[in-house]
Design goal:
Two copies of one chain form a homodimer. Chain A is mainly β. Chain A has no helices and ten strands. At the A-B interface, strand 1, strand 5, strand 7, strand 8 and strand 10 of A face strand 1, strand 5, strand 7, strand 8 and strand 10 of B. Strand 1 of chain A pairs antiparallel with strand 8 of chain B.
Chain lengths: 113, 113
């Protein structure tokens, strides 16, 4: 059993095509998780993740902040306490259009669907 | 894509061997999630989950509150912002020994390890 505060995990830039976004990989294969990984993203005001799609799903819980989820021509608002499910192969992007940092738990599978 | 506040999901008693504990199944197979499920537990002060083990893991994020994780003779404190990984087959129990409701995100796999 492992118990640790999320801030003890080093945060890294979330990579190309993101802006003002960092990620902490909280629970991974290295910890023994064989089926899915837990990450915590922080998106600063005016920051965003890439508009992209992939063949795996996202299971998301919004911890803090607010913003917009873009999916093609559709835009949906999100706020703290919201749950988001993005199925495989669906175009998606998260934008922080609020005034405080968005903190988001986002889980992805290790196995193929 | 689905976006909804967690409070829009009906909460249910978490079942036998729990005390003062409710659960909301937030993301499930019914929503299209094939690999893992997201649940949100609320454990009221003095409440607890069963001391048990099973052959699947838990990936947990503590949203609010504090308490104790029991694993055999070991006890670990947890608080808001903590991440918990419980590997398969490890004995575990969560107890709320604080003064406010614990809110906990807990994910489990649908597939076998």
């Amino acid at each position: 059993m492992n118990v640790f505060h999320y801030t003890t995990v080093t945060q890294k830039d979330a990579g190309p095509q993101t802006s003002k976004t960092n990620v902490r990989w909280l629970i991974t294969k290295e910890l023994g998780a064989k089926n899915f990984a837990m990450r915590l993203f922080e998106i600063q005001p005016k920051g965003y993740t890439p508009l992209h799609s992939h063949d795996w799903e996202h299971e998301i819980f919004i911890l803090e902040g607010e913003g917009i989820l873009v999916s093609g021509e559709k835009e949906l608002r999100f706020q703290a306490g919201d749950v988001v499910f993005i199925p495989p192969n669906e175009l998606h992007q998260m934008k922080n259009n609020g005034s405080k940092t968005c903190k988001i738990i986002c889980l992805i599978p290790y196995k193929e669907n």
